[in-house]
Amino acid sequence: MKIRENIIIKGIVQGVGFRPFIHKLIKNYNLSGWVLNSNQGVEIEVEGEEEELNSFIDDITEKLPPLARIEEIEVFRLPLIGYKGFFIKKSKAREENSLVLISPDISICEDCLQELFDPQNRRFQYPFINCTNCGPRFTIIKDIPYDREKTTMSVFKMCPQCQSEYDNLENRRYHAQPNACAHCGPQVFIYNKDRKKIKNVNPIEQAVKFLQEGKIGAIKGLGGFHLACDATNDQAVLRLRNLKKREAKPFALMSFSLEKIEQYCDMEKEEKELLQDRARPIVLLRKKKDSLISSFVAPNNNCLGVMLPYTPLHYLLLKDNFLALVMTSGNFSEEPIIGDNQEALERLDKVVDFFLLYNREIFNRCDDSIIKITNHNSVFFRRARGYVPDPIALDFRLKEVLAVGGELKNTICFSKGKYIFPSQYLGDLKSCGALNFFEETIEKFEKIFRINPQIIACDLHPDYLSTKYAEEMGVKRGIEVVKIQHHYAHIVSCMAENNVRERVIGVAYDGTGYGDDGKIWGGEFLLCDLKKYFRIGHLRYAPLPGGDKAIAEPWRVTYSYLYSIYGKKVKELKIGFIQRQNHNKLSIMEKMIEQKINSPLTSSCGRLFDAVSALIGIRDEVSYEGQAAMEMEAICISGIEEGYGFDIYKENKEFIVNPENIFKEIISDLKNGVGKGVIATKFHNTVADFTVDLCVKIREITNLNKVALSGGVFQNRYLTERIIFLLEKEGFQTYIQRKVPPNDGGISLGQAVVAGSK
Predict the structure, then answer these.
(1) Burial of 380 (0-12, 13-18, 19+ CB in 10 A)
(2) What's the CA gap between 726 and 720, in Å, rounded?
(3) What is the DSSP string of 122-179?
(4) Sequence ranges of the domains in the chain
(5) Which end of the chain has fewer CB within 10 Å, C or N?
(6) What's the pLDDT band for 315 if we cut at 50, 70, 90?
(7) Which residues contact 451 (CB under 8 A, 6 or more apart)?
(8) Gap between the Cα atoms of 234 and 214, Å rounded
(9) 175 pLDDT band (50/70/90 cuts)?
(10) How far is residue 724's CA from residue 456's CA, in Å, rounded to a whole number?
(11) Class of domain 188-370
(12) What is the mean pLDDT of residues 725-740?
């Protein structure tokens, strides 16, 4: 029987060659009709025999283009109208309540890479080669439907050859919206540090020459600028550190191939696969000793963040030229990445020796994603290019919510139906630039996804810029503002991405979060579901003399703990920590603690790590967040099972973890000459031990057997893997985060779910 059907396909089906795929697929069938990009995804209308039509729909799901993902197919039976042939129709205009999923940016595919280095190909060495299977997507999209005129490629009119490819059903570039070549597409230029164009040179070859001479360059990438130099050149790396005012925080590297990376890093199978993934994230790898990579790339760290090239321009820079390039974000400390040519020229001219630019606009800035393999799973440190704006799909629906995240590692998040859309990493909201990027991203996401939030969710902290924004926007739009405790948002974030809705034991370990009692939380045990939580345990409170200053100077936290244990006799301890401190400063610390002057109380696990790090002589002061803990993790030794003593007691219906014995036993080890690596390992083991012990105690009174782990401390691979191992040994079902970071980059997801579930 002959029938006509309207088929609506929802998912990532725009910008991935889906319409050309349908057009080619239909040639295998005796079917007529059309396909177009619509306000819901891709819409197909076809007529033909029912059996053939059913077979065609089955083929769609089985033979998807590489970048496509189908979430839902809706089919509607319609009266026959007698179509002749099959064609691609002009896209439908957007409707206000429509939702179309957008593809993230995709690294250059193998076919394009072969053409890039083929002297016989017309796109030989063209740095913007792409096709339906690769290239820029999110970073160039201004609106949906995904057509060239709604991207930053709209200013480049295709030449006859490119247009012919675009129109040819059998061509790989059939309806590839960014299609271009050297005659009609974007061009690359090189400028000197005085912002003058260098003429009559091949810009990429000149950039290579400059980098080989030890110079520093600002190189425009897919989602923003990188600051680049030769990673084997100590002088260049040190100069970049000084100019960027980045004392010790590790730089990211880029190498041409896995073979190059193997010269300076050890890689497991999962890490190799992740490096080659089409998202091309930065992957944290264990570095080899005595490699040619400068020790100044990641000082006092046993890991290097490494990525493979993801644009044709990167491949042209690296091929046969370098073991690795430093490719660090083109910004200043914790500010957003720079994406605009003029801004780069004006702001980076004191940092770099040259600029490698191109004339295609970056509409959506997007930094590199960072991932570490933990317990055989990918754990995000930063979720951005290659993954955004891919949504997190839930098995339940939410109200439309805008969640504005926290202060550090900020992301925003929108919910719509069963989807949650976390933004790219936006940086720390501590500058005008970061706040502008934050507001710009909210506006762009609202437009692209046609979301009109009914609720704004934010952190409890009254002084966060994100909280103040939510309060102002709530008044301006006349909508509800929901404030959500920081660590509850962490745990719900973990629950949501694992589609867990029932009550769990939540363990939230991080540096800072505003608590219900006005104190600084960060070592929390919560009983959580998606609508409410109860704090059932935490690390014992300790004063933080100097407040935020103690975060940059961990010795203050160490002394606070020691003073609470030994009182005035603390200065008599015969240990290196006491001997190297200024005793006048220690006396000031004592008065601050006793008189409660700028010494807020904290239960932070992150601060406990800082305190132990300073105690054993790793770092008294830090230049970036998490430095002390990262350097302590770096010296952990596998095979050591011992730990230290601790005490768990109950106070006002809450379990309290008392670390006093940890400090006493560490001091004993220090006096006995035990090495830092051994002490660091025993401390990590102890944190894992008291975490599991308290979970067992909580299970005894609640019968809960599911544990969700979240917070920045769970970026620590050694600790996380040990806690999971011990919890599972005790029969717990454990959940960690794999789709958004466990750090503060993930809390906007938790905020959206809590507010959207109300």
Answers:
(1) buried
(2) 10
(3) TTTT-TT--BTTBB-SGGGB-SSS--GGGBTTTTSPPPHHHHHHHH-TTSTTTT-TT-
(4) 2-88, 188-370, 390-498+743-756, 520-528+536-735
(5) N
(6) very high
(7) 400, 402, 414, 416, 421, 445
(8) 9
(9) confident
(10) 34
(11) alpha beta
(12) 98
Sign of the torsion formed by the C-alpha atoms of 554, 555, 561 and 563: negative
Structure tokens at 254: 């880029």
Using alpha carbons, list the distances in angstroms from residue 518 to 146, 315, 514, 545: 47, 52, 6, 16
Among 593, 629, 609, residue whose Cα is nearest residue 687:
609
pLDDT tens column, 644-654: 999 999 999 99
Would you say the pTM of this structure is higher than 0.90? yes
Give the model's confidence band at 229: pLDDT under 50 very low, under 70 low, under 90 confident, else very high: very high
CB of 179 within 8 A of CB of 115?
A: no
Q: What is the CATH number of domain 520-528+536-735?
A: 3.30.420.40
Distance CA 505, CA 705 (A): 8
Residue 95's pLDDT is what? 58
Residues forming beta bridges with residue 459, ordered by sequence position: 484
Q: Which of 313, 401, 414 is closest to 356 using CA atoms? A: 313
Going by C-beta distance under 8 Å and a sequence separation of 6 or more, which residues neighbour residue 321?
A: 208, 211, 212
Distances (CA, A) of 746 to 119, 185, 734: 46, 37, 18
Using one digit for the tens of pLDDT, what is the confidence trace for 521-536? 999 999 999 999 999 9
pLDDT at 479: 96
Architecture field, domain 390-498+743-756? 2-Layer Sandwich (3.30)
> If you write DSSP's letter for every residue of 174-194 in order, what string do you get?
TT-TT---TTTS--EEEEETT
CB 625 within 8 A of CB 408: yes
- Is the Cβ–Cβ distance between 757 and 748 less than 8 Å? no
| Topology of domain 2-88, CATH | Alpha-Beta Plaits (3.30.70)
Q: Nearest CA to 715 among 405, 382, 404, 440?
A: 382
Per DSSP (E only), the strands in 552-653 are 601-602, 647-651
- Could you tell me the pLDDT band of residue 93, with boundaries at 50, 70 and 90? low
Which residue is associated with the tokens 């490819």? 165
Q: Please say if the pLDDT value at position 334 is more than 80.
A: no
Residues 521 and 241: their CA atoms lie apart, in Å, by 33
Mention every residue, 6+ apart, whose C-beta is less than 8 A from residue 475. none
Token pair for residue 445?
A: 């996401």
Dist CA 458 CA 471 (whole Å): 9
Q: What is the mean pLDDT of residues 255-280?
A: 98
Tell me: pLDDT of 170 over 90: no
Query: 627: helix, coil or strand?
Result: helix
Tell me the two tokens of residue 170: 């059998």
Q: How far is the C-alpha of 520 from the C-alpha of 623, rounded, in Å?
A: 21
What is the average pLDDT value for the chain, to the nearest integer?
A: 95
